[in-house]
Amino acid sequence: MRCLCTVLLILFSCFLSAATVISGGNVSGVWSVVGSPYLINGNIIIPEGESLTLNPGVELQFQGYYTLKIQGRLQAIGTFSDSIKFSTTSNSQKWRGIIMQDIASSNDSTIFRYCSLSRGDARQDSQDRNGGIIRVLNSSRLLIENCCFSYATADSGGALYAKNSSFKVKNCFFYNCSSNYDGGAIFTSLPDLNNHTSLYIEHCTFKSNSAGKMGGGITLCGGSHYIICSKFSNNYAQNGGGGIALKNNCHYLCLNNLIVNNGTSHQGGGIFASSYASGNSIINNTICNNSATINYPNGGPGGLYIRGYADCYNNIIWGNSSSQGQIGIRTDGPSQFFDYNDIEDGLAAFNISWENEPWQDSQYGNHNITGNPQFIQPTIDNSLNLDGLAADWRLHQNSPCRNSGNPSTDILLYLFDLAGNPRIMENYIDIGAYEYRNMSIPQVPQNVRIIKNSDLLYLSWDPVNQALDGAPIYNISYNIYYSLNPSGIWEYLGSSTNPFFILDSENNSQAFFKVCAVGNP
Predict the structure, then answer these.
(1) Neighbour tally for 52: CB within 10 Å
(2) 3-state secondary structure (DSSP) of residue 506
(3) Rounded distance, CA 198 to CA 162, Å?
(4) Same-domain check for residues 340 and 385
């Protein structure tokens, strides 16, 4: 029996409300869908002590190179089926984005939830060319979740820039954002003296972003940063860190992430990390099929470059391409430690240089393995043109990564893997971002639905938390397929627990999507 649900989805949009023209100046109160779209014809400001609430379904269309400056509070809280949109009236037009600066701690938090933000461009700003859609300075009263950022650009931080600020970014999708310098999608600047910057990135996806220098997906400098259960695919940086760049002695935790098919011309096709802060950790990541070209003298490591301190364990490092190996180390004595990893070619995959003290043999633990991780359906090579998110990076039942992780791993760091399954399913923790799961056969997903937001589709469904044999089952993974003709060929788009994002660049008026529970016979 096949446990799947096929639906015909006819996509259309309609406008039942009249536009409201906003000429510029101070704004506050409540903007409802009745007055939407709101046509912004000047710079607008939410004054200190004031609040602007945007109801679900509201659209802000900037008619020129204008900005929204927040000095008080913005509540942009949409829903899955009725998001809030910030953009322009045409694909060629750009707007300055949103600026939060020196927000008083007495103000309530600004919230972006279920928002679509696109076409911001900071490069025309004569004062600050960073943060194409949101720029945050000296402000920590902010939460961003369940949002989509796309087609944004800046000098640094194509979509998001932060300095002297601490906040969370959760369940967000960053697509096709770019920067002239660092951080194709996100950049955090080195904080000023006696200030601190901390970014908590969780369950986010970074796809097809690019940077002229470092961090095709993100660049995080100074401060303390947490990158947890996120996906980085098909991002590119010219000078290092195709997916992630960590710099300027920042403290970082990189945990349960998928980092695949990213590239650079310098060092670290997947991750570039340079920090002498103590306690840095790279744990349970799948770092595969990334690449570095030979433009850098003698090349750079294809997968991972570390300078300074870092503990690396429970990672899969495989299929990364470079003339200088998969892992590059710039060490100063026992500043890095690798153990309980699955590393293709083992110690031979390392390119090691040192500063004051050489690499020590004890830095490569006795529990690393070198067996093929046996993914279900990985990309066939490290090409940037292969969609790393459409592949299936979960472990086959015969994978040597099963039960091969560090038995002393503190699973309280994170109780679930990248798919949302419990972190330990058998005897020990597995290596990589996904825990192997031999589950009962799940039932058909219910109430499959789709929402079209510009050229992005949000596909969701209601899982049935009971297997066909009646056993309880949770955090079910589903494969998603697409076709213009249900009697023809179905194209595999990827897997997800729920929801799933689809780029509809062709804007088809009719399409078929099929959602299949993983684990069917």
Answers:
(1) 22
(2) coil
(3) 9
(4) yes
